Amino acid sequence: MALPDLLIRSPDGSDALRSEPLARLDLRRFLYVGAVNHRAQQALQKIDRGELGDPQLERIELLLAIKNEIVTRLVSGQSRHSVPHYIATLTHFLRFLDDNQKSFSIDQLEANYLEFAERLFIAANKKRATLNRNSAYGRAVILSALFGSILNIPTTVRLVNRTRLKPFPRAKKSVNRTVEKQSLEATFKQGNFLVDLVSGLSIEAVHGPLPLIIPMRPGLVEHDQVQLYAGLSELEWPSTPKDQWTLHEKQRYRNAMRLRRSMRDIKGKGGARRWRLVNLRVQAEFLIFLAQTGINLTQAKELKRGTLKYKPLGDSWQVRCYKRRKGGEVSFQVYKSYKPFLENYRSFISYFFPESESLFPLFDLNGQNESATKTGLTSFVLIRSLLTGYAIPWVTPRELRSTRVNWLLRRSGDADLTAEMAQHTRKVLKQQYERPSQQRAMIEVTQFWNKHDPIKQGDLTGSVIASSCNGKPEATDDKPASVAEPNCINPSGCLWCRHLRDSDTEDYVWSLASMRHLKSIEVSITPTRETVPADQVIERLSAKLAWFRSSSPQRAQWVDEARERIAEGDYHPNWSHIIEFLEQG
C-alpha cells in the first residue's frame, strides 16, 4: 500500500518552508513505533533502512488531519514561523501516545488530549516541577486549537477550558519615575533621529553624490550630522601626496570617485549599493509608523498600499485596513502632524517600487528585486547599526508599543480609551501591556485623598511648622503622654495632630531639619540623662526626614540640601531666631 504524502509544504507548493529543515516537516515518521524518540532526520534514515518495522496504518487518518489543518492555517495567512511551534508541541503529544500505547484514532483524540493535559498539569505543579506552568498551558492551548478545529469543536467551548491548566501571570515590576523618564527620553531621542534621517533620505539624495550628509537637530549627534556611504566604506588614503601614489592606489581612487558621483541606477553593486539607503529609509519609516499608529509589527509589516482606506477625522485621518487574523477590518488613527510624512513616504516608495503592493517593501540581499521575507522589518540590521554608530538608544518595536500604551494610559487615566487606541480589550491591556507605575500610583493616591480627605483643600491653612492644617487641633492615638497636646501654638504638638498635612516642598523639609537641630540643642542643655519630650520630637522629625529621603531622588536632594544648610548655620526663618538665641547663650 502506498503511503500518503505527509510533508507540510508552503502554500506556494514548494517542498520546504524556507529555513525549516525538510525532515522536521515530514509527519511520515510518526507512522512508525518509536520514531518519535529520535531526531527527525535520524528517524527517517532508520525508516528507510527498515529498522523501525512497518508503518502503523491506523495512524494515517490523524496525521493527515493534522497536516491538512496546519496547511489550511498557512493558506489563510498564518505566519510560517508558527509551524515549528506546532511540530514541537505535536511531537510531545505524539510521544505520549506512542510511549503509552494509546490509540491514534480520531475518535479517541479528545480523551487522549485531556489525559495528556492532566499530565502536563501534574508535571508543572508538583514540588520539584519538571515543566514551567506557562509552558504547560502554552502546549495545551496550541493542541486545543489544532484538535478543536479537527474535531469541529466551537471556540467558545475550547478543549483547554476543560482542563486544570491555567495561565500563570508573571509579576510585573513597578517602574519608578526615573526609569519612566529614561524610557521616554530614549524613545524621543530615537524618534528625533529617525525623523531627521528620513527627511534627508529623499529620492534625489539616494541618486546624489556620496557620502550623503544629513543634518541633524542640534545636540542629537556629534557634529550635528550623519554621513552615509551606502555600500561603500570611508576610504583611508595614503599619507603620501597624490603624485607619489602607486598605479593601484590611483585606480582605486578613480573607482571610488566614480561610484560616489550621482547616478540613476541604484540596484546591485554597480550603484555602490545605494539600494541600502532605500532599505534604511523603509526601516526608519516603519518604526515611525509603529510609533504613530500603535499597531503591532506583524500586522504593519503585511499592510498593502491598495488596502488602506483614508477617512478625514477632525485633525487626523482614520485609516482602515484588512487584518486577516481578526477576519475583518481594523482601524487606527494617523495624527495630523504625521500625515505629510506618510504622504511623502508613499511617494518615495512608489518611485523605487512602482510594481509592489506592499506598504513597506525592501530590496533583497542582492539589491535587485523586492525581498519576499522582509526580514529587515524584524531584525532592523541597517537601522540598528546606524543607531549604535551614533550612540542613539535602540528601542525595540515591542518596547516602543509598550511605552506608547503606558504613556497614553498615564496621560489620559482612562484604561478603556487607551485600550481602544491600542486596538485591544481592556483585559489584554492590563495583562500584556500595562506596567505598574510609581508616578501614576502617586497621582492616583493624591487624587484619592484629595477627594476623600475630610479636610477640604479650601479649608487648609498654614501650620506653625510650615505645613498645612485646618486649625482644629486633635491629638493622634500614638501621641506620647509627655509631649504637649496639639494647640496650634506649641510646634511639638503639631507632629501628633490628626489634622496636620505634610507639604511636599523643599521649604518644608528645610523647616523640619531646622526644627530637629533646635530640639538637639534643647536636649544638649537639659541636665538629665533620662528621655525628655525633645528626644521624642527628634525621633519623630528624623522619621519624617528619612521618609522624604527614601521616597524619591528629588526629595533626597531636598534632605541633603537642608543638612548642608544646617551645617553652614543657615536655618529656616521659622526657627532661626530661636536657634541663634540658644547658640549665643
TrEMBL record:
Annotated InterPro entries: DNA_brk_join_enz (IPR011010)
GO molecular function: DNA binding
Domain of life per record: Bacteria
Name of the protein in question: Integrase
Source organism (scientific name): Pseudomonas putida
